[in-house]
Amino acid sequence: MREDLIRQIRAYTPYNEQEETDQKTILRMLQEQEDIFLRENLTAHMTASAWVVNAERTKILMAYHNLYDSWAWLGGHADGQEDLLGVALREVCEESGVKKVKPVTEEIFSLEVLTVDGHEKKGKYVPSHLHLNVTYLLEADEEETVRVKKDENSAVGWFSPEKAVEASSEPWFQERIYRKLNRKLELLLRIS
Questions:
Q1: Which of 9, 87, 96, 112 is the most exposed place for a label (fewest CB within 10 A)?
Q2: Which distant-in-sequence residues (6+ apart) come within 8 Å of 50 by Cβ?
Q3: Share in percent of the chain as helix, strand, coil (round to 5)
Q4: Are 105 and 187 in contact (CB under 8 A)?
Q5: Do the bridges between strand 60-65 and strand 153-159 make them parallel or antiparallel, or are there none, so unpaired?
Q6: Tally of CA atoms within 13 A in the half-sphere of 80 that contains its CB
Q7: Domain locations along the chain
Q8: In this structure, are residues 62 and 157 in contact, taking their beta carbons and an 8 Å threshold?
Q9: Could you report the per-residue pLDDT of 62-110, keeping only the tens digit for each?
Q10: Which ranges of the chain does DSSP label H, i.e. alpha helix?
């Protein structure tokens, strides 16, 4: 499974300089770090995120993440699972309560190396580290009831693509991640 992921990441065409640089870092770490899929690797570990759209591609599903005190995309740690699309699907269901979620495409939608500041989690200190993140474009039914996952978020909701960016209180994510994902979504819609 790791070799499949390495092939997918190698085949991925970076959207911009950030993705080109991050692609190299992720590939290097995947080849050098045996425990890269485990959060016990305190330097860096694999994560998967999702830009979740409705069927019309006019809304984005976000959660208000307690740790970051911000509206954000959905996703999480691989925790030993090397199928990152499966991780993204699982995390969307766990974090939002939706049950009907599917890939728009099984291809990688975006790549990011994300910095995580040291913080407390469940009474234990987690040192600063990197999330080697693979993002997927997923679709969920906006009519489905959403719910919070109390230990991680305090709200879940649908936003227009522009409002999804504005809802985030993290400037770096607004500019470097969410706006990029919206631009890539617009390109995809033009092609289809």
A1: 9
A2: 73, 74, 75, 88, 89, 91, 92, 101, 135, 136, 137, 138
A3: 35, 30, 35
A4: no
A5: antiparallel
A6: 1
A7: 2-191
A8: yes
A9: 999 998 899 999 999 999 999 999 999 999 999 999 999 999 999 999 9
A10: 2-11, 17-32, 84-96, 161-167, 171-172, 179-191
